[in-house]
Design a protein that fits this description.
By secondary structure, this protein is of the alpha/beta class. It has one domain: Rossmann fold (3-Layer(aba) Sandwich). Helices cover 40% and strands 21% of the residues. It is built from 7 helices and 7 strands; from the N terminus they run E-E-H-H-E-H-E-H-E-H-E-H-E-H. The chain starts with a strand and ends with a helix. The model has no long low-confidence stretch (mean pLDDT 93).
Length: 150
């Protein structure tokens, strides 16, 4: 049996960027400021402060990624409080919180959350007609997993 989750036209978007990708995320956000203004934004640490100043719109600020911000976003995903993740991560630099990053991306798959990890993917998602309408997301039923004998 599958479950369904309604993602409304006004999305709850979490935005994260590693240090080497912040400029790229800010440039992308500036190009998409009108679309972003229609949604509720959340962001980790410095990224959130920079986005708020750039976009001149409120951004709910979370902790810096290495200080638990990635885990906060993951918790919000598990609580069905995030509809979309824009996470420009740096594949060329080891991060002190790499396990948190992997866990966050895993939760996006578990909870069927769209993830943009680079500008091209973000562009594809943000130009989709689904960004401007309600969407019913199919959620995998994990009842068997939860009821397994351990």
């Amino acid at each position: 049996m599958e479950n369904f989750r309604k993602i409304t036209v006004s999305k709850r978007i979490a935005m994260v960027a590693h240090d080497n990708r912040k400029v790229e995320l800010l440039d992308w956000a500036n190009s998409n400021r009108e679309q972003l203004s229609k949604n509720k934004l959340y962001a980790t640490g410095t990224t959130g402060k920079l986005l708020e100043a750039l976009l001149n719109q409120p951004v709910e600020l979370l902790l810096s990624g290495p200080l638990g911000g990635d885990q906060q976003v993951g918790s919000m995903i598990a609580e069905e409080r995030i509809d979309l993740l824009v996470f420009f991560w740096d594949p060329m630099s080891a991060q002190p919180h790499d396990p948190d990053v992997k866990a966050l991306l895993r939760l996006c798959v578990v909870w069927n959350i769209p993830v943009a990890s680079n500008r091209a993917t973000a562009d594809f998602i943000f130009t989709s007609p689904l960004m401007n309408e309600d969407y019913i997301a199919v959620q995998t039923d994990y009842t068997k997993y939860l009821n397994r004998v351990v």
